[in-house]
Amino acid sequence: MKLVEFVPPKPHPLWKLCLQMGITDVIVKVNPDLTGRSDPWKFETLSEIVGGLKEAGLTVVGLEGDPFDMAPIKQFGETSGEAASSPLVSETQREEALAHYRELLESMARLDIHLLCYNFMVGTGWARTGVREGRGGAKATYFSKSEYESSYVRFRNRTIEQSEQSEQSNNLLLTKEQVWANYAYFIKSVMPTAEKVGVRMGLHPDDPCLPELGGYARIFETVADYDRAYALCPSPSNAVTYCQANFKLMGADLIETAKHFGSRIAFIHVRDVEGDKTDFTELFHD
What we know:
This protein is an alpha/beta fold. 40% of the residues lie in helices and 19% in strands. The protein has helices at 13-20, 32-35, 43-55, 71-74, 91-110, 145-162, 176-197, 223-232, 244-250, 254-261, and strands spanning 5-6, 25-28, 59-64, 115-118, 130-133, 139-144, 200-203, 212-213, 216-217, 238-243, 265-269, 273-276, 279-282. The strands form three sheets. A seven-stranded parallel sheet has the order 1-2-3-4-7-10-11. Strands 5-6-13-12 form a four-stranded antiparallel sheet. It has a two-stranded antiparallel ribbon with strand order 8-9. The relative contact order is 0.12.
């Protein structure tokens, strides 16, 4: 087992702090919004990002998060409700994004990076609604479903009103069945490449693990959902990111769930929270 830290892909004080803590293996996110580079799937681009960290004494052992805009993959299909029969993305856009994803896996392997922490949260990724004061006056992020939904409904209704459409803000843009279909298409498209090049893809739970958020259904909120995902493509490369806080918020027994997944666990997020999945606050790692 390796102790690693998640760091920004550009020079940052955390780089030096990692070395002071004796941590030399790191995880990065290579999304263009963070790197300023538009094609992170290309070997040359990824090599430059990794090389910058190497010069600072840090070794990239994994990537985390969406490496680029994943909407063509996650949001494929036709919307429901007030925008019924309106395609979110085209088949051509989806296939192009999948080709980029497979190329990313190949580039990672060439650079000896064999872990990819990914998620399948549609529309909204990791959601937090603010900051609360914790122990010793430390600031900690929190999520409140009621606060989030209040802000979302105000935004949604305003958008509908501006476009002169009827208010049907309770309808999901993509249903659970649609999101599952998109996930199945995605994992079956990229898993053969991951297996071939030896990259383990660790699936992260929905965060927060709610049935829906921001107008889109969510599909990874239980251990059973993970087993369903694995059954689509049984493989050592089809792995688990064991984010402790999320499984805790699911109501799962952490020890028994870890035993259940066993060798499928490729990556562990050491986190703790207090509260439940509708309202929780991050805690220190006691």
